Structures are given as structure tokens and as C-alpha cells.
Amino acid sequence: MMTKNQKLLSWVKEIEALCKPDRVKWCDGSQEEYDGLMAQMVASGAAIKLNEKKRPNSYLFRSHPSDVARVEDRTFIASKTKEEAGANNNWRDPIELRKTLTELFDGSMRGRTLYVIPFVMGPLGSPFSIVGVEITDSPYVVVNMRIMTRMGTAALDMLGEDGDFIPCLHSVGAPLQPGEEDVAWPCAPIEQKYIAHFPEDLSIWSYGSGYGGNALLGKKCLALRIASLKARDEGWLAEHMLILGLTDPKGRKTWLTAAFPSACGKTNLAMLVPTLPGYKVETVGDDIAWLRRGKDGSLRAVNPEAGFFGVAPGTSYQSNPNAMYTIEKNTIFTNVALTDDGDVWWEGIGSPAPDHLIDWHGNDWAPGADHPAAHPNSRFTVAAAQCPAISPEWENPDGVPISAILLGGRRPRVVPLVVEGRDWAHGIFLGSIMGSEITAAAISDKIGQVRRDPFAMLPFTGYRLSAYLKHWLEMEGRIDKDKLPHFFHVNWFRRGEDGKFLWPGFGDNVRVLEWAAKRVHGEIDANDSALGYLPAPGDINIDGLGEVNMEELLTLKKDEWLAEAESIRAYYDKMGEVPQKLYDLLDDMVARLKK
Ligand code: GTP
Ligand code: SPV
Ligand code: MN
């Protein structure tokens, strides 16, 4: 046995007795183990080895067509009471849910191997890092967890003999009868899928899905939903945010985070290649930030992950060159298309579709087909260390000091390119009114519809959102006054009458970052508006951009915003127990609009 940790040993025993796997394997996280599992999956037909010359040490997986994204309708928070989980979560009684799941997990690993994956979220040895142990019957999960977390022996070392961990139980929910042949992507039907979180004992039980955040339990389940509960109790924040460092031409560095909903541009912004001369961006994280007061009194951010699980479609050498360099080797692709010469292709990769592809279903595909060749939520899994823009600070156990927090979503209308909050509370107000078009990152029949998504945490907060917003307001008192970050609400996705994006986005987003950094350092004035501080005309550098309608991008329309205010009020009322301070700021916004 690899550990003397009694809690872990007895938990593994208990789960083995429940799930009844054919064998148990403790994962050490080594390259040999990874290569062995890949070889086994290639042999079984679950994985395809890509052309070694084009994409060294890289693999393609195709999921079951029903198992392609997070399942928000099947994600549950089993707190003691429904009130504690809030209207933002699907609540189930913890005792009943545990009973339902115990029946499903009983024998769920028959014919399969039970893998024990010890892992760390956060830099090894950091006092803020959290140890988890995932038990899974999916070798695909094991290889992904090796990239996305610090996994194996190092995690067991950190756990030690009497350290504590978050137990994360996962099964694809497809036991095999004796002699039954396995399928390439086993999973359970949608109504049997459960992504369950138990706040009382901080445990996770996930059944029936093998995809992304449903199955790689260190990510959304641990580092956001469970961590948000710990953070509330311990006075810190677990957020759906990228982390980056911006260096200006004078060499001054500004660290910032940005909360955008799923598939709304975090990976892209995190590693952007600035189009303004003399600027540099370095990446700390692309999806999750843990934020807390540092010894220096500032708000410091750590990326708990070790890899990127990024959206493939739209990623090109044009839009996100650093991501393209990162995935040139040692990468797992899921649900992208396969070219005839054994490489990958997706919509928006920057080259036209070849005459023939194998699509994400595994079928022949040709340009003009009635469906995309790559699934819109197809993804790459790759080590963060491979990113050419990775920051030397990315594993700093104390994190980086944040002085700007960006908030935003996909809003085709109404919301300006950028507006700054007046102070901390007003920044929380801007976070609370965030909205975004629903994307393919979650299975939904409402893709494209705008929904409210405060701080991009609607699907990821382990308790009620009103209490979460109160916690954010209270965090102000934990940070030194002169080190409080500024908040900026941004929108790269505004569209003109012709339906086209008004803002070029991607590398040109540095133009907005430049303005934000100047505001943080007190170098530039702004115009107060009903929504907060707007850039003065000409203060966003658009040199070399050609025609950009800044007027349209930066003007608030009174009627639109009065309507928006009504919709926000209805949303607050429905959420219930929204802090009075936020209602006051909403009233203030309406009063300013009517002035
Ligand atoms: P998750 O991993 O789901 O949390 O997503 P993410 O927030 O990291 O999103 P990502 O950066 O992968 O972007 C998703 C999609 O948004 C891609 O198809 C991008 O091409 C597109 N996108 C990103 N940045 C911009 C931008 O500045 N402008 C426009 N128009 N599209 C963008
Ligand atoms: C997201 O949906 O925000 C993701 C992908 O980052 S997943 O890990 O599947 O949640
Ligand atoms: Mn995400």
C-alpha cells in the first residue's frame, strides 16, 4: 500500500466493498502509468493515437453523444435545508440522495478497475492547497486528472499519515456483466446521472457521466462548489476566474483576475498576445482562482489547477496563438474532428475544412454537412507548464497580488465594452447583475438565451447566491484599504445591427486592459455614469483598428438600462435575501438614469 493514512485506507475499502470492481489500482502519477493507460485505451478502441509527427504524444477521445458537457440539471447540492442551497442550486435531501446514490453505486464498477487518484488542488506544499482523492472506474479520468491536478505520490506525501482530504467518488455508471464487451465511452442515461455535493461532510459523489466537470472532480466540484463552502466559512473566495499579469511598456506589472461564464473567453484572455506594442501578458490560470488576504494585506490569487481543459472550437493561431503552441504535443483531445493524416481539426481552427474528416461521432464528414465536425464543447486537456506565456509566478504558494477584477459575459446588446465600479460594494453590484448568453459548455435547450450569472458562479456556488454576495461584500474588510482591487465590467460580445461583433476582441482586448491598469494606478480620469465610470472618448487606444464604433460600444441607453434595472430587481426578488446594500445600489442606478 502506498499510504498509511487510515482515513484514506478505510474509505477505499468501504468504496471497494460498495462498487465491487474487479481490481483496485492506486495511481502514482508517473509517466509510465500514463503511457500504460493510454496504450490500454488505444488497444480497446477508447482512444486514438494521433500522428506522432504532427501531434507528438497526443490522443483523441470521442464521447457518447449524450455525454458532451456539464449537466446542470443533474448537479445537486445536498445541504441540510433547501434554503441553504438556494434557488441557484438543485437541492436534494442529503439522506435520501445518499440512499439513491448508494443503490446506484452498489456494484457499479463490476468488470472494471477501481482507480484511486490522490491529487492536490493548489501548488504542492502551499498551506492553502487542498488534497482530494478521486475514486473512479474511468481510465480517461485518470489520464486527465494527471494533467489537470498535481496527482499521485506527491499528493499522498502531502496528505501524510493523518492529513485530511476531500473524498470524491466517481463512476461512469456502466457495470459490465461477465463476458460483456465494453464500449468506447461508457456512461449512464441522463436521468441516472448525478453530480452530487454534500456540504455537511464536504464530499462529492458523481455518477453516470465521464465528461469534463462532471467527472474530473477536482475542478468544478472540488475547487469551486466544495471550496466555495470552505471559503465562506474560512473567509476567502473560490472563483470561476482566470488570473493574468499585464506588463506595460514601462515595465510596470498589474495582476488581474476575470470572471466570465463558461465558454466566454477566460482561456483566451488568460494567454492573450497583446496587439499594443510593448505590452506583455503572462498566464497564471485560465479557469479558477482562489483568493485570500495575503501577508502583505492585498488580495492574492492562486490557480488551484495544473492544466487547461480548454474549448477547442474558435481556437486558432490567429485568435489564441499561445493556446495553439501549448497543444502542439502531450495533449488529450475530446470530441474534435480527426483528419486523414491523423491530426485534429475543429471549426475556427484557422484553416478551411479538408474535403474529408472523421467527425466527433466517428463518422465520415465533408464540408457542407448539416452538423459541425467538432462538437461545440469539444476540448483539449494540456499541462499549464507547456504554455509559452506561463508566468514564473504561476506556482507561487502565496499567489499574486490582484489589483483589478474583470467581470463579464456575452451580451449582444445593452452592456458597454467596459465600465468601472465606483468602489468595492459597487463592484459587487456589477458582479451581481452579470448576464450572459448560455453556451454549449452545459447541456441545455436554452443555448443563446441570456441568463443572469453573478460572478459567473451560478452553476458553481455550493450555497445560496444571496449569501455568496454577502460574503463578497464582507471580504472588503479583510483587505487593506489602499490595496483593494478595482472592479471592471466588460463585454467583448456586443453586436451591431448587422449581427457582427462591434469589438475585435482577442489580442485587442489588451486595449481595455490598458485602460483598466491606468485607472488602477490613478493615471487617467473617467466619466461617472449611471452604471459606473466609463472611459472618456479617446481614452481607449484604438490606433490601427480601423473602423470601430466606440460611440455605440460605450454609450448607455437610458430606456435599455431602465428595462435592465427592472429585470435585475425581479431577479433579486426571486433570489431572496439579497443584501440591502445591493438594492440600494440598484435604486441609486435608477435614480441616476432618471436624472
Ligand atoms: P470555459 O473553459 O468553459 O470556462 O471557457 P472560457 O471562459 O475559458 O472560454 P474560452 O476562452 O475557451 O472561449 C470560448 C469561446 O469564446 C471561443 O470560441 C472563443 O473563440 C470565443 N472568444 C474568446 N474571446 C473572445 C473575444 O474577445 N471576442 C469574441 N468575439 N469571441 C471570443
Ligand atoms: C466550464 O464549463 O466552465 C468548464 C468546462 O471550464 S468543465 O470542466 O466541463 O466544467
Ligand atoms: Mn470554466
Structure in words:
There is one protein chain. 27% of the residues lie in helices and 22% in strands. The protein has 595 residues and is of the alpha+beta class. β20 and β21 form a beta hairpin. α15 runs antiparallel to α16. The chain is globular and about 75 Å long. The N and C termini lie far apart (71 Å). The relative contact order is 0.12. The structure holds guanosine-5'-triphosphate, sulfopyruvate and manganese (II) ion.
Average residue-wise pLDDT: 97
Q: List segments where confidence is low: pLDDT < 50 over at least 5 consecutive residues.
A: none
CATH architecture of the largest domain: Alpha-Beta Complex
Structural class determined from secondary elements = alpha+beta
The strand count comes to: 32
Distance between the termini: 71 Å
Helical content class: 25-40%
| Largest β sheet strand count, sense and barrel closure | 9 strands, mixed
Number of domains: 3
Question: How are the SSEs ordered, and which strands pair?
Answer:
Layout: H1 6-19, E1 23-26, H2 31-44, E2 47-49, E3 59-61, E4 75-77, H3 82-85, E5 90-91, H4 94-105, E6 113-121, E7 130-136, H5 139-148, E8 150-151, H6 153-159, E9 166-171, E10 194-198, E11 203-207, H7 212-215, H8 218-234, E12 237-239, E13 241-247, E14 253-259, H9 266-270, E15 280-285, E16 289-293, E17 299-302, E18 307-311, H10 321-326, E19 332-334, E20 337-339, E21 344-345, E22 357-358, E23 364-365, E24 379-383, E25 400-401, E26 404-408, E27 418-420, H11 424-432, E28 435-437, E29 450-452, H12 465-475, E30 486-490, H13 510-520, E31 526-529, E32 532-535, H14 550-554, H15 558-575, H16 580-594
Parallel strand pairs: 1-6, 3-19, 4-5, 4-10, 7-9, 9-11, 14-26, 26-30
Antiparallel strand pairs: 2-3, 6-7, 6-8, 10-11, 12-16, 13-14, 13-15, 16-17, 17-25, 18-24, 19-24, 20-21, 20-22, 22-23, 27-30, 28-29, 31-32
The site of guanosine-5'-triphosphate has 22 residues, from helix 9 and strand 18.
